Amino acid sequence: MSSKRKAEDVLLKAKEVFEETTQGQVTITVNHVSANGEEVQKNFGQVWKRAQIEMRIKKTERGIPFPDLIEEGSEVCDVCRFKPWVHEDLLKIMRIDAAPRPERLCKVCWELRKEGKGVELDKVRGKSNFVALLRADGDDVGKTLSGGKFKEPGKSNTPSRLSTLSDLIHRVCEDKLQKTVANYGGYCLFAGGDDVLAFVPGENALEAARSMASQFREEMAEGCTMSIGVAFFHYALPVYTGLEAANHLLRKAKESGRNRVAFAIIGGTGATLNELEKVNPRTWEELDEILRIVSFMRKSGVASSQIRRIASIAEKEPEKAEVFVKYLMGRRVIDWREGEKFLSYLKTGLLYDAFLVYNAFWRT
Amino acid sequence: MVEEKSLKKEGEDLAKVAVESGMGSKQLQTIFRLTKSKPMAFVEAFLQRQIGRRIRGYDAFLMLLDISKKYAEEKELFEKVLMYASMLYVYYENEATMKLKSSAEVVIQKIVERLGFRYDGLQIEASGNFVEFRVGLKRFHGNPKTLAMEIERALKEKVFALSGMRLRIWIEST
After folding, report:
1. In this structure, are residues A245 and A264 in contact, taking their beta carbons and an 8 Å threshold?
2. What is the pLDDT of residues A260-269, one digit of tens each?
3. What value does the mean pLDDT take over residues A23-28?
4. Nearest Cβ partner of B101 from A326, A331, A336?
5. Whole domain around residue B128: which residue ranges?
6. pTM of full prediction above 0.90
7. Which of B59, B93, B127 marks a domain boundary?
8. ipTM greater than cut 0.85
9. Quick one: A12 and A105 in the same domain?
């Protein structure tokens, strides 16, 4: 909030500082609405709502940014593949064909590297060579900030309440969730507002997601939940493959009722939208069950080939899968007690999902 | 359209009746094989012939005749019921013994570990009112008879299904 007279100057300065910091790579839209003191005091919720609507209108007014043209024949940066390269990083040798050469970077990527920013997926990948990109977002945070949640206990939306709530959400994401990601051996690429974007070793990603969601819910006194999209991909695949998938999965998790996780394991050839569309988002309780099944699969003495057969039948014909497990139990191919556990897991309908995780990370 | 679930249920029931009536698993497999290669009339005649020959499993043969009449026009469904039944036969044949084994194993393991031996598997054979246990142990020393008696007492006390049965326990040092 500022006085009406200074509003334009403050916004322009904020825009200037933001775009200077991001070296023009990211732009920001700024806008303001005016309201008198009485309106702010008595009806701040409405003022806030108006500000949001006007911001949305302003965002639609901006043109689509046209990419910078580069000269024909010039070689592009090895990292962003977008701008011509200007520096060579002699510490990083690229093995291209039979002629290794230093990595070539554009001005922005070079500056970022000098500052030590960025994550090298080689360092994040687990034993399975898979990394996971986690895209987390608080549920209904817009509604919460616009005062919807304050109405429940019969309170009005005031600037100080809004500021406290906004600070809390920001602090949880930027501080606590970032630490949680680090505890699982991951790196946060972005953590602010109610958004988190992080790389985590494939093996730990689902536990990390579960931990993030429960921490967010606890810190928000059970008033807000979190949805997460988790895209597992081979570390050598382009990052945008994982990023697009994680965004899509997060959207699916939100569309299926929020407070959910959607995950997909992307093979060597990437994943099409159709394949991602088939992913079934799971509630956090279902994820707990999936992780329990994975742990059982890891510890059980059942051969991974048998687990694969059971899971692939379970995916298409659950009735047959039950009969098949009983057949293996009767023939003593699998231990009776382990067979009984398989039968109980079959009933949950989560066995195939669990198998996908087991197969990618824990199969011996 | 008959649902897969109800076909499975029929197969399951058939397997249970086959086990209870003493029909051999090979018999069931033979009927399944015949169904795949011969017309339904032939299968029915075969079932009637086996009943006439007083082959074990009278109740199961009768049930099979009923099912074959029900699916006389849909042979593939009859085939499916038989497929489920022959897959589930071994399960129901072993179910009672294996359940007994699971509950007995916990009791036996507790006793042997308390005495400082290492449990190394259990084999169980049941027929009628008599059950024989073969307890594999590592690092066993002492009198096997005393241990066997202690295990027998504990089993009769703690496993309800064994309380009225005759038990024989063998201790096998491996």
Report:
1. yes
2. 999 999 987 7
3. 81
4. A336
5. 96-173
6. no
7. B93
8. no
9. no
